[in-house]
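Annotators were shown the component list below and the corresponding predicted structure, then asked to write short factual statements about the assembly.
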Amino acid sequence: MKRILITLTALFFTAFILSGQDSRDMVSKCALGIGENTTYLKDFVIKLMAASSGSETPVYKANIYLMKNQTYLFTMCNGDGSEGELVLQLYDKEKQIISSYNRNTDMVYSALEFVCNKTGLYTLWYSFNDGKRGNGVGIVSLLK
Amino acid sequence: MKKVNVIVLTGFLISLLFSCGGSGNRVANFNFPESDSIPINEAEKLSQEAIEDIVQNISSPVEMASLLQALEVPFFTEYLASTREADGLSTNFQKALQLGVYGADLGYLNIYEKTGTAIDNLATINKLADALRVGQFFDFETLKRLAVNKTNIDSLVFMSVHSFNEIDEYLRENNRGYLSSLMITGVWIEAQYLACMVLKDFPHRELKDRIGEQKIVINDLLLLLRPYMNSDDEFSDLYSDLERIKTSFRPVEITYIPGDPETIERNGRLVVIQNETSVIMIDDDDLSDVIKITEEIRNKVIANQ
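Structure shown to annotators:
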């Protein structure tokens, strides 16, 4: 019994650490792809369940200060096994400024540039297209 | 009986595993002694959680430095906080606040590729992070190697900023928001100080605007600190100092000119140009006051007074 207990505890902690490590790897991999002339600022690791029938698409929201006269690059990376593609909508209070999903063409963009001319607190809404289950990373960087 | 125990235990461990699954890039939870967490009542705790949700990114250790570099302003070593005082820091309050100050300096050093000086700064940050028991997020050896090699500045910037983000997130999620708020305050004070010092010699309009628009940010910074303002004398003192900075911003006027965003597609990316603009108005005397008070308070912070 003692041996089983030790083994299970070790397995638990190994899995836990790997889970954190996986997220770190996912962030590092995504950060590698943000391209040249960028300065990394912040990342968001997003894991969302699928929307249940009739309910709204699950959304991960994060507030961030964006400064005037800066161009920000928002990069979205999908995790391994993610069923949906990560979509970003940028809000200035209640007003949506941009979405990385184009409804007309059904296209999901993996990168958005935002030329900011108004300093303030903005909200990033991350979700997965069609309310699918998914995991991914959103990175915010500065374009030089 | 043994079989039942194993099944129950397995179920428990599995349920624990899944309950932690949503925490993304979190690392295992550790229990910290009471001295690290300031007891706050439930109502305050709730409001603090709400505030932390409101503002996840008040101040970045590299954003101001990036602006200075973009304006082609030269680098000034004399603006950096001395790392010599770090050994004399006795309280967690001082350590967390200074961690933020040195973090902003590290951002400034890295953006300007002054990696030789950055090593000293990295060592100090590593020491403070260990003292606050968040050293697991700061891979000193790798950062030092990147700084010495000087071949991959982008990785150095990424790793150092990411470490700070992880420390901040970890502290907030482990009931140590008290320390996180101090670290963020340290970053903000130092970044604002760097901008103020540079502006004295290089009066760029953009820099003047960036300083003035901190009038918006300082309100949220004070909100973040408010739950702890009466927790001890050090905190009350810091809060009063920041209120003095806030007061110095009172004459700054910020107006908004409406406009609809334009969207274009360039090289497979969506590019959005915001046409709503903010206009900052601050006269030179008022700006001098902001600079004077910021300088005074920042110097007080690094002197641990």
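Statements collected:
1. The mean pLDDT of chain B is 83.
2. The first helix of chain B runs from residue 2 to 19.
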